[in-house]
Design brief:
mainly alpha, Globin-like
Protein backbone atom coordinates (compact mmCIF):
# COMPACT_ATOMS: atom_id res chain seq x y z
CA UNK A 1 0.00 0.00 0.00
CA UNK A 2 1.46 3.42 -0.94
CA UNK A 3 2.48 5.81 1.80
CA UNK A 4 -0.05 8.62 1.53
CA UNK A 5 0.49 11.47 3.92
CA UNK A 6 -2.64 13.52 4.43
CA UNK A 7 -2.26 17.25 4.04
CA UNK A 8 -1.17 19.04 7.19
CA UNK A 9 -0.93 22.69 8.15
CA UNK A 10 1.89 24.90 6.97
CA UNK A 11 3.93 25.29 10.13
CA UNK A 12 7.69 25.16 9.50
CA UNK A 13 10.52 26.21 7.23
CA UNK A 14 10.53 22.74 5.67
CA UNK A 15 6.87 23.29 4.76
CA UNK A 16 7.81 26.61 3.17
CA UNK A 17 10.57 24.93 1.18
CA UNK A 18 8.10 22.34 -0.12
CA UNK A 19 5.58 25.05 -1.02
CA UNK A 20 8.07 27.32 -2.76
CA UNK A 21 9.67 24.47 -4.71
CA UNK A 22 6.36 23.08 -5.93
CA UNK A 23 5.00 26.56 -6.72
CA UNK A 24 7.98 27.56 -8.85
CA UNK A 25 7.86 24.22 -10.68
CA UNK A 26 4.34 25.25 -11.70
CA UNK A 27 5.42 28.80 -12.56
CA UNK A 28 8.21 27.61 -14.83
CA UNK A 29 5.80 25.37 -16.76
CA UNK A 30 3.15 28.08 -17.02
CA UNK A 31 2.64 29.61 -20.49
CA UNK A 32 2.12 33.11 -19.11
CA UNK A 33 4.55 33.27 -16.19
CA UNK A 34 7.31 30.87 -17.26
CA UNK A 35 8.74 33.13 -19.97
CA UNK A 36 8.74 36.13 -17.62
CA UNK A 37 10.84 34.28 -15.06
CA UNK A 38 13.11 32.36 -17.40
CA UNK A 39 13.47 34.62 -20.46
CA UNK A 40 12.92 38.18 -19.22
CA UNK A 41 14.08 38.08 -15.59
CA UNK A 42 16.51 35.23 -16.30
CA UNK A 43 16.10 34.02 -12.74
CA UNK A 44 19.06 32.26 -11.16
CA UNK A 45 16.96 29.55 -9.50
CA UNK A 46 19.76 28.37 -7.21
CA UNK A 47 19.87 31.86 -5.69
CA UNK A 48 16.18 32.76 -6.02
CA UNK A 49 14.63 29.79 -4.25
CA UNK A 50 16.54 30.22 -0.96
CA UNK A 51 15.60 33.93 -0.98
CA UNK A 52 11.95 32.92 -1.38
CA UNK A 53 12.26 30.47 1.52
CA UNK A 54 13.61 33.33 3.63
CA UNK A 55 10.94 35.75 2.41
CA UNK A 56 8.03 33.47 3.29
CA UNK A 57 9.61 32.45 6.59
CA UNK A 58 9.84 36.15 7.48
CA UNK A 59 6.26 36.84 6.33
CA UNK A 60 4.70 33.87 8.11
CA UNK A 61 6.86 33.30 11.15
CA UNK A 62 8.54 36.65 11.70
CA UNK A 63 12.02 35.18 11.20
CA UNK A 64 14.61 37.88 10.56
CA UNK A 65 16.17 36.01 7.66
CA UNK A 66 15.07 37.88 4.51
CA UNK A 67 17.20 40.57 2.96
CA UNK A 68 15.98 42.16 -0.22
CA UNK A 69 13.68 44.64 -1.92
CA UNK A 70 10.82 42.76 -3.59
CA UNK A 71 9.07 45.93 -4.74
CA UNK A 72 12.23 47.24 -6.39
CA UNK A 73 12.74 43.93 -8.18
CA UNK A 74 9.17 43.98 -9.49
CA UNK A 75 9.41 47.62 -10.57
CA UNK A 76 12.59 46.81 -12.49
CA UNK A 77 10.92 43.81 -14.11
CA UNK A 78 7.83 45.87 -15.01
CA UNK A 79 10.11 48.26 -16.88
CA UNK A 80 11.16 45.34 -19.11
CA UNK A 81 7.88 43.51 -19.60
CA UNK A 82 4.21 44.19 -18.94
CA UNK A 83 3.05 43.11 -15.47
CA UNK A 84 -0.70 43.52 -15.53
CA UNK A 85 -3.55 42.20 -13.44
CA UNK A 86 -3.48 39.11 -15.69
CA UNK A 87 0.05 38.16 -14.56
CA UNK A 88 -0.64 38.92 -10.90
CA UNK A 89 -3.90 36.96 -10.94
CA UNK A 90 -2.21 33.97 -12.56
CA UNK A 91 0.62 34.10 -9.99
CA UNK A 92 -1.94 34.15 -7.19
CA UNK A 93 -4.02 31.38 -8.75
CA UNK A 94 -0.98 29.09 -8.99
CA UNK A 95 0.20 30.00 -5.51
CA UNK A 96 -3.18 29.27 -3.89
CA UNK A 97 -3.60 26.03 -5.83
CA UNK A 98 -0.17 24.92 -4.64
CA UNK A 99 -0.99 25.78 -1.03
CA UNK A 100 -4.29 23.89 -1.30
CA UNK A 101 -2.58 20.84 -2.80
CA UNK A 102 -0.08 20.62 0.06
CA UNK A 103 -1.64 22.08 3.21
CA UNK A 104 -4.82 22.55 5.21
CA UNK A 105 -5.35 24.65 8.30
CA UNK A 106 -4.84 28.11 9.73
CA UNK A 107 -1.27 28.46 8.43
CA UNK A 108 -2.38 27.56 4.91
CA UNK A 109 -5.17 30.12 5.06
CA UNK A 110 -2.75 32.72 6.45
CA UNK A 111 -0.25 32.28 3.62
CA UNK A 112 -3.03 32.58 1.05
CA UNK A 113 -4.34 35.76 2.68
CA UNK A 114 -0.87 37.28 2.91
CA UNK A 115 0.00 36.32 -0.66
CA UNK A 116 -3.16 38.05 -1.88
CA UNK A 117 -2.21 41.20 0.03
CA UNK A 118 1.35 41.11 -1.28
CA UNK A 119 0.15 40.62 -4.87
CA UNK A 120 -2.30 43.50 -4.46
CA UNK A 121 0.37 45.85 -3.11
CA UNK A 122 2.85 44.86 -5.82
CA UNK A 123 0.23 45.28 -8.54
CA UNK A 124 -0.78 48.69 -7.16
CA UNK A 125 2.79 49.96 -7.07
CA UNK A 126 3.69 48.55 -10.47
CA UNK A 127 0.52 50.12 -11.89
CA UNK A 128 1.15 53.40 -10.10
CA UNK A 129 4.72 53.40 -11.40
CA UNK A 130 3.53 52.73 -14.96
CA UNK A 131 1.02 55.60 -14.68
CA UNK A 132 3.78 57.99 -13.58
CA UNK A 133 6.02 56.96 -16.46
CA UNK A 134 3.25 57.59 -19.02
CA UNK A 135 2.53 61.13 -17.77
Amino acid sequence: MPDITPPHDLASRSDIVALVNRFYEQVRRDELLGPIFDEVARVDWDAHLPRMYDFWEAVLFGAAVFKGNPLGVHLDLAARTPLTSREFERWLQLFHATVDALFVGAGAEEVKMRSARIASVMQYHVGASEALIRT
